[in-house]
Specification:
This protein is an alpha/beta fold. It is built from 31 helices and 33 strands. The longest helix is centred in the C-terminal third of the chain and has 21 residues.
Length: 924
């Protein structure tokens, strides 16, 4: 009785927090619950029935296995439970999605009892999460003349699991709720500092926006019981920063519909909107849950009588309201006319939210059901020897005669599956593509494992080149939450077939390397497609897409992803970098110059940035591709010279070999396979058989941006602009300011060098600057703390071999020790250098943080409110983003440097340099 007693004790503890019983995923607990159900005199029988029926997780959890077995006993009459009739047992099986439930349904459908077989078949016809083992059983039975198997397969061929679903309502009534002004980061919907609770959906839901906002949403629901609450980013974009499935889950939990009465806290169909639409990666996550994302365009640029845009004293366009979406406004979404209405008044066209494919997602309750449904229909038609009946909307195939291909169009054409043979596809086409590399990170990984269980997946797709589970987001503090969650995650992913950062068996040294850096190394093909559970999955080889935990799970299970081919924006460079500038300044200047060139319009948003980087290796070029998330681009592609790409692949090979030497390869020798593929790619480039990826000279772009290096005269800083009178302008990444803006007197309380935006060269810059400062001043004295977190252990090892780590040790007051990792987050900092463990550290905001109200100068990518630093009542926390040398100097001075101080400090320092390629980086 211990397990059940422990569960009851946990329930009482959760009541204090205002929480319901935690959903059950453990087989041992379900076994005890079943025993109590069978014992008619048991005092816990009534509660046990409720837990069994309403609180046991479906899919491939061990609990689902026990539940499915017991339901089978009831259907066969081997157990009799008055409250669970055989008909009700079938209904419960129908809500269990896959895995053990499908196995049981197949046992019954292919069994000897004709009446039971008929009932089981009717349930099976509604299911889509079938895998090879399941379809092989059906196929075998069909070949042996089983009429039930034939009936099921014929139903699958007609896709009755989809066609018999209710149609999408023509009118959907919504009531608006302004979640915030300006861009809304997913940190508002699912804060990074609450990452540990993401797998506990009800608990994590408590952190969405604020308790006050949650109460307002509940009040709107009570006032409008027949309407859905639509969360809105007023004067901004909804869901910037990351895909974060937990953010969409939270929105669905508060405003969506329950997916099943027998599965707690899994909701679907959220409705979200933004003045500037929805961030592309967030919109993908909305599709996963069968939701709706609207581009509201309720604020427009004001024009004068001549049609010219009116600008304010800062030169920015003045916006005027086209229509109001103030909290409490009742609107109507018409899915037939694809228009948004206020009463009878038409407001805007919303056709983009209701393409045929999106309508299918909405009807099916999410995109997974469509992906698996299409796969199941294809299987059935093949078994029956018939053409696939046209049920699903055909993928949009756009082809322009005589038009060349951009780099991303080339990659998608090569990796596409299920398209018209021989047809060349251009941007706008809907494409299913095979994926090469998949990455899962540790604060969303538990959700990914839950998604895999929910879709009944048990093993990684064999068509993937490789997949990696990181440990970087929980690297800085090995606290009780991490100790409880991470080993469990690593064991699951290791068993599933991923290369894991931490070894569940404890054989190799734990690796907390930043996931993006590892994925950048294990991507060994410039024609690859990469999917990763983080918005900064933006490799400088191939094309990489940040994705929610569910899309990652789908890629791991099927080796595929589905999306439209995005438009591209071409970025080239002219001029020459000044000696005292760092490539990070070029990255920031690219964003600033783009906004200036296009009158404030962000042409990068939702598109591919095709950056003709040419001469920078993948390590250094990653600084650009990584930042493209902050540019709101969907992804970025680097166009490299042949020799540069070969050098990048050689670096990748050496780092993969180190992983092999550590003992990280698995029985499938995935890592060795990557080295072999890299060797093959290098040979192709050297022989001229297949040079580095380049676009066609006659490719068509949405826009072209030319970055003028000559005008970048001083370091560029991304500023959260926390005191801007226009709230919507705060905490965007679009405010890029020159160093001189601060006049050399802005106080800096903390510096951070680390995470994914730095490479080995940055660590060497730090070491060189410290030596220079000592030579100039006789000592190194920090007037503000400086936290340094190298991206990877490989880099630490290389720095040790080259003598730079010794320099860093000399000036540090703290150095990480993997044998004694911190068990609690640091809350106070001394004015010294901290050498932290490789990983995300301050950038994540879930473990280490700056003191509240601090002004932080960081190499990070995140400047969102409360992420790196929280506010106090008296002062807003600020996270200013800059290059490594600016951060170093700011902590030594305790303030922003003047341009003269900066130039003197970097004299003779080997900064990250960049010179545009003089070679033709197009295929003519």
């Amino acid at each position: 009785m211990n397990i059940y007693s422990d569960y009851i004790k946990e329930i009482e503890e959760r009541k204090v927090q205002g929480l319901h019983p935690k959903p059950i995923d453990d087989a041992a607990l379900v076994s005890e619950i079943i025993a109590q159900i069978k014992d008619l005199d048991n005092a816990n029988r009534e509660d046990s029935l409720k837990f069994f029926i309403y609180n046991t997780l479906p899919g491939t959890t061990s609990a689902a296995g026990e539940k499915a077995k017991f339901l089978k006993e009831i259907i066969l009459g081997e157990s009799v439970v008055a409250e669970i009739t055989p008909a009700f047992a079938f209904e419960l099986l129908s809500h269990m999605k896959g895995g053990p439930s499908i196995e049981v349904l197949l046992d019954l459908a292919l069994g000897n009892d004709a009446a039971i077989a008929k009932q089981a078949a009717e349930v099976l016809k509604t299911q889509v999460f079938l895998y090879d083992a399941d379809t092989d059983r059906l196929k075998e039975a069909f070949k042996n003349g089983n009429t039930i198997a034939k009936e099921i397969i014929e139903s699958y061929a007609k896709a009755e699991f989809f066609t018999k679903l209710p149609e999408v309502a023509e009118e959907i009534k919504v009531v608006t709720f302004i979640a915030g002004e300006g861009d809304i980061s997913t940190d508002l919907l699912s804060p990074g500092n609450q990452a540990h609770s993401r797998s506990d959906r009800e608990l994590h839901g408590k952190c969405m926006i604020t308790p006050q906002a949650q109460e307002e949403i509940k009040a709107l629901q009570a006032q409008h019981p027949d309407k859905s609450v639509m969360l809105i980013a007023e004067k901004g974009t909804m869901g910037v920063g990351s895909s974060r499935m937990s953010g969409v889950n939270n929105v669905a939990l508060w405003t969506g519909k329950q997916a099943s009465p027998y599965v707690p806290f899994v909701n679907f169909a959220p409705i979200v909107g933004g003045t500037n639409g929805i961030s592309p990666i967030f919109l993908t996550t909305v599709d996963v849950t069968g939701g709706i994302g609207l581009d509201l365009k309720n604020w427009v640029k004001k024009t004068d009588a001549s049609g010219n845009v009116v600008r304010n004293e800062s030169g920015e366009p003045v916006l005027e309201q086209a229509y109001s979406v103030a909290t409490g406004t009742v609107l109507t979404i018409n899915t037939k006319t694809k228009k948004l209405y206020n009463g009878d008044k038409e407001l805007i066209d919303i056709a983009k939210a209701f393409t045929p494919q999106k309508m299918e997602f909405i009807k099916a309750g999410g995109s997974y059901a469509i992906v698996f449904g299409k796969k199941l229909q294809t299987f059935a038609a093949k078994v029956l020897g018939i053409d696939i009946p046209l049920v699903f909307a055909p993928s949009k195939e756009i082809s322009h005669e005589g038009q060349g291909l951009t780099a991303v169009e080339k990659i998608f054409n090569r990796n596409a599956v299920g398209t018209t043979p021989g047809k060349i596809l251009h941007a706008g086409s809907d494409v299913r593509v095979e994926v090469n590399i998949v990455g899962s990170q540790d604060t969303t990984g538990l959700m990914t494992s839950q998604e895999l269980e929910a879709m009944a997946a048990t093993v990684i797709s064999p068509i993937l080149d490789g997949a990696y589970q990181s440990g970087c987001h929980t690297a800085s503090v090995w606290d009780k939450k991490a100790q409880a969650n991470i080993p469990k995650l690593m064991k699951f992913m290791n068993n599933f077939g991923l290369i894991t950062a931490r070894d569940p068996k404890g054989v190799y040294h734990s690796m907390t390397d930043v996931i993006h850096k590892v994925l950048n190394d294990i991507t060994i093909d410039d024609w690859a497609i990469i999917i990763g559970g983080d918005s900064h999955t933006r490799m400088s080889k191939g094309v990489a897409f940040g994705a929610d935990s569910g899309t990652v799970a789908l890629a791991l299970a099927t080796g595929e992803a589905s999306m439209p081919i995005p438009d591209s924006v071409k970025v080239t460079f002219k001029g020459e970098m000044k000696e005292y500038m760092d490539f990070r300044d070029v990255v920031h200047a690219t964003q600033a110059q783009m906004l200036k060139q296009f009158g404030g319009e962000n042409v990068f948003q939702g598109r591919i940035i095709e950056v003709h980087i040419g001469t920078l290796t993948a390590d250094q070029a990653f600084t650009f591709t990584d930042w493209s998330a902050e540019m709101k681009a969907k992804a970025s592609i680097c166009i490299s010279e042949d020799d540069t790409l070969i050098e990048s692949l050689e670096i990748a090979k050496s780092r993969i070999q180190i992983m092999i030497d550590k003992g990280m390869d698995n029985h499938n020798q995935v890592l060795q396979g990557l080295i072999n593929k890299a060797d093959k790619r290098i040979a192709e480039i050297k022989s001229g058989e297949k040079p580095a990826l380049t676009p066609d000279a006659n490719a068509k772009y949405y826009a072209e941006v030319v970055v003028d290096l000559d005008v970048i005269a001083e370091p560029m800083i991304a500023d959260p602009d926390v005191n801007n009178a226009d709230v919507s302008k705060r905490y965007t990444h679009d405010t890029i300011r020159p160093l001189s803006f601060y006049g050399g007197d802005k106080k800096v309380d903390l510096g951070f060098i680390g995470s994914c935006m730095v490479h080995k060269g940055d660590m060497k810059i730090l070491a060189q600057m410290l030596k220079n400062i000592e030579a100039q001043n006789g000592k190194v004295e920090f007037k503000a703390p400086l936290v340094v977190a190298p991206p990877t252990y490989n880099i630490v090892d290389e720095l040790k071999a080259e003598g730079d780590w010794e320099v860093l040790q000399k000036y540090s007051g703290f150095e990480f020790d993997d044998n004694a990792p911190k068990a609690a987050a640091r809350t106070e900092y001394e004015k010294m250098l901290y050498l932290e463990r490789p990983g995300c550290n301050l950038c994540m905001g879930n473990q280490e943080k700056a003191a509240k109200g601090d002004t932080v100068m960081a190499t990070s990518t995140r400047l969102f409110q409360g992420r790196v630093v929280e506010d106090t009542d008296a002062k807003k926390g600020e996270s200013l983003l800059s290059s490594t040398p600016v951060v170093v100097l700011s902590t030594v001075l305790g303030r922003t440097p003047t341009i003269e101080e900066y130039i003197a400090a970097v004299d003779g320092i080997n900064l990250t340099k960049f010179a545009p390629s003089h070679k033709q980086l197009v295929n003519s």
